[in-house]
Amino acid sequence: MPTVQTNDIETYYERRGSGPPVVFVHGAIVDYTQWQPQFDALSDDYTTIAYDVRGHGRTGGSDRESYSMDLFSDDLAALVDALELDRPVVCGLSLGGCIAQAYADRYPDRLSGLVLVDTFGPSPLSPGERVQRRLLRAIIPLVRLFGYERVERVMVWLQERLSRGVSGEYENIEAIRATGPTMATEEFAKVIRALARFHETPVGYRSITVPTLVLYGEHDAGFIRQHAPALADAIRGAKVREVPGAGHASNLDNPEFVTDALRLFLWGIWSGDRTARDATAVGPA
User: What average pLDDT does this structure show over 217-223?
Assistant: First the structure.
């Protein structure tokens, strides 16, 4: 089982292909296989790396009492160092996008590009979003009683009643859960608290000067659709694209579109062709 020491844990990772490095960071309560379609497809031209974030999958938990985006980003930096990756492009989805933002701010000279998918910034953009983040912590006692899979199914059902299509092809997420290690309840609690406290993590967007692509699902939650253009405005030169027909896991709901968008973005970075980089500004196809 391939692992590397990252701070106080052994982090599980998978590596494919050869060429310029691309690191994929998954969302909460899944594992590295969330990025499998892009991880495999892009390995024909790039070195692709996907890993299990602390608390998840085969990396598992740790003795720390709490987690934070800064800790997760430091783990990512340790992974990049251990694998001797030269300024990778970092692609993060949801929680992974939060981690990627923190990494890009803390280590601005240690990446070549940034991809933020179905994610959000530290500061809530509306009173409703502030309430949502507080409610995140409220689900922890329910998970202790019923398990996170049952609680999430109920939450998905409720979300679909409020915003049809937000959960996308949810069976893709269930398939990941069915094949990966079960997450410990205490680790779930630490990860959810870290998400709920993202507003405590300062992210200086002016320090992020690498090419940046922001992707979001057409049917994603309203607050995600609000954050996508806000992130693109905050990061100089960032481009934003909507993923047609997709919910919150847009890379699984419409994998061909996301893979093509990434391939074009990566080609623009590594070829040094700014016209290709600007092409990512094109709207939904």
Answer: 91
Q: What is the pLDDT of residue 8?
A: 95
pLDDT at 108 over 90: yes
Q: Please enumerate in sequence order all residues whose Cβ is within 8 A of that of 101, keeping only pairs 6 or more positions apart, or say none.
A: 69, 92, 114, 116, 119, 121, 122, 203, 208, 231
Q: Which residue has the higher pLDDT, 151 or 247?
A: 247
Q: Which CATH number, 3.40.50.1820, 3.40.720.10, 1.20.58.480, 3.40.50.150, labels domain 3-281? A: 3.40.50.1820
Distance CA 18, CA 14 (A): 13
Residue with tokens 């109920």: 154
Q: List C-alpha distances in Å: 280 to 65, 149, 212.
A: 41, 36, 10
The secondary structure of 217-283 as a DSSP string is: ETTS-HHHHHHHHHHHHHSTT-EEEEETT--SSHHHHSHHHHHHHHHHHHHHHHH--HHHHHGGG--
Question: Count H helices, E strands: the chain?
Answer: 11, 8
User: Quick one: tokens of 253?
Assistant: 């709901």
Q: Which residue has the tokens 């959960």?
A: 167
Q: Which of 189, 191, 162 is nearest to 94 (CA)?
A: 191
Token representation of residue 107: 């280590």
- Is the model's pTM score more than 0.85? yes
Chain CA centroid to CA 175, Å: 18
Nearest to 15 by CA among 4, 28, 27: 4
Helix axes 148-162, 127-146, angle to 10 degrees: 150
How buried is residue 4: exposed, middle or buried, by Cβ count under 10 Å (0-12/13-18/19+)?
middle
The H-or-E segment that residue 31 falls in is none
